[in-house]
Amino acid sequence: MTSIVYLSLGSNIDREHNIRAGIRALRKQFSKLELSPVYESEAVGFEGDSFFNLIARIETKLSLSDLSASLKNLENELGRDRTAQRFASRTMDIDIVLFDELVGCYAEIELPRPELFYNAFVLKPMADIRPHEIEPKTGKSFAELNEQLATDQRLWQVPFSF
């Protein structure tokens, strides 16, 4: 069975290189890949360089736990420092935002990923890629959620070619 998954990608260390490398690796592993625009945003939760962020929609036959392990390996290959603090600069951060219509905690992964509801750098590109799709937990479209997001996070789209 094929699952539809949305991933949030972010990097604030050698951003352009690492975003491109992450997308190349995802394209090798998943036959269908759809990408949102890339946004730049200030670091949230710590002092650091601005991030590049985007959403990738993939189709996979992997289980949630196998996909999570595969994405952790990809982060590691791109130089992710797992000894760093939770809120710190990153070469690559890939989070599973949605996995089919799952709502709840599965394989220690909360779905939908909570950041979807309060971080503009996750919600805005999600609304770009699937504005009318219904988010399974709230029953609202991603465009509606984005319009209702109350945040002072600064976010701006950047020209980016893959």
Q: Which tags fit this structure?
A:
8 strands, alpha+beta, Alpha-Beta Plaits, 162 residues
Quick overview:
With 162 residues, the protein is an alpha+beta fold.
Q: So what's the CATH class?
A: Alpha Beta
Rg computed from alpha carbons, rounded to a whole number of angstroms = 15 Å
Envelope shape: globular
By CATH, the architecture is named: 2-Layer Sandwich
Mean pLDDT: 92
Which regions are unreliable across 5 or more consecutive residues at pLDDT < 50?
A: none
Q: How many domain units?
A: 1
- The portion of residues forming beta strands comes to 25-35%
| Portion in helices | 25-40%
The separation of the N and C termini measures 29 Å
Largest sheet: 6 strands, antiparallel
* Helix/strand order: EHEEEHEEEHHE
| Structural class by helix and strand composition | alpha+beta
Q: How many beta-strand runs?
A: 8
User: Could you name the CATH homologous superfamily?
Assistant: 7,8-Dihydro-6-hydroxymethylpterin-pyrophosphokinase HPPK
User: Please, how many helices?
Assistant: 4
CATH third-tier fold name: Alpha-Beta Plaits
Architecture overview:
With 162 residues, the protein is an alpha+beta fold. It has one domain: 7,8-Dihydro-6-hydroxymethylpterin-pyrophosphokinase HPPK (Alpha-Beta Plaits), CATH 3.30.70. It has 4 helices and 8 strands. β6 (104-106) and β7 form a beta hairpin. The longest helix has 15 residues, at 15-29. The model has no long low-confidence stretch (mean pLDDT 92).
